[in-house]
Amino acid sequence: MAVIAASTPLFPAQSAFEYQQWALALNGDSLGHIGFLEIIDEYGSTVAGNLAKAYAGICQAHLGDYAAALDNLKSYSGKDKLFAAQVLAAIGDCYVSTEKMEEGVRYFQQAADKANNKALTPVFLNKAADVYANLGDNEKALKIYTKIKAKYPEFAAQNALEKYIERTKLKVEN
Question: What are the φ/ψ torsions at residue 99 (nearest 5 degrees)?
């Protein structure tokens, strides 16, 4: 019964989330729709409550509250490997946004491993490579960029990837 009760209020919050209305999705509105935070409070131990943790964390990250975002994202425990991979990447984004680059890259690599598919894996690997490049670890960045190019030819940013590879090669050679 709690799963059905929690699923009903989840829909308006998810709708606000889809329209990138982060604060509304997180906190609800004056019309009686509750947000993800209240869903977590009321139904936290249910499937819907667990899902609300991931959504709340993403909303909080978009609103710049990275500490709260990390708390919620890390408390999510889902079995859907693709969604779980996206949550790991969101954790990585939070760390990068708070200048904890090494932590961020670790989560991007975990996300890539967890996703293990042609659509998401190269996106997460590319994020890891970009962080390595920003850290000045051009050898690691080049290795990942080259891996993406070889293993994921359908990657949407393939054209930009060639530019990153060439630029990173020059940095490694110098």
Answer: 65, 20
User: What length does the chain have?
Assistant: 174
Could you report the per-residue pLDDT of 68-120, keeping only the tens digit for each? 999 999 999 988 999 999 999 999 999 999 999 999 999 999 999 999 999 99
Q: DSSP assignment, residue 46?
A: S
Please compute, for residue 39, the number of CA atoms within 13 A of its CA located in the half-sphere on the CB side: 34
Tokens read off for 147: 């891996």
**Main-chain dihedrals φ then ψ at residue 74, nearest 5 degrees:** -70, -20
Q: Which two tokens stand for residue 49?
A: 């409550």
CB 46 within 8 Å of CB 6: yes
Of 113, 149, 143, 117, nearest in space to 129 by CA:
143
Closest CA to 55 of 32, 22, 104: 22
Structure tokens at 16: 């606000």
Tens-digit pLDDT profile for residues 1-25:
344 455 677 899 999 999 999 999 9
pTM for the whole thing?
0.91
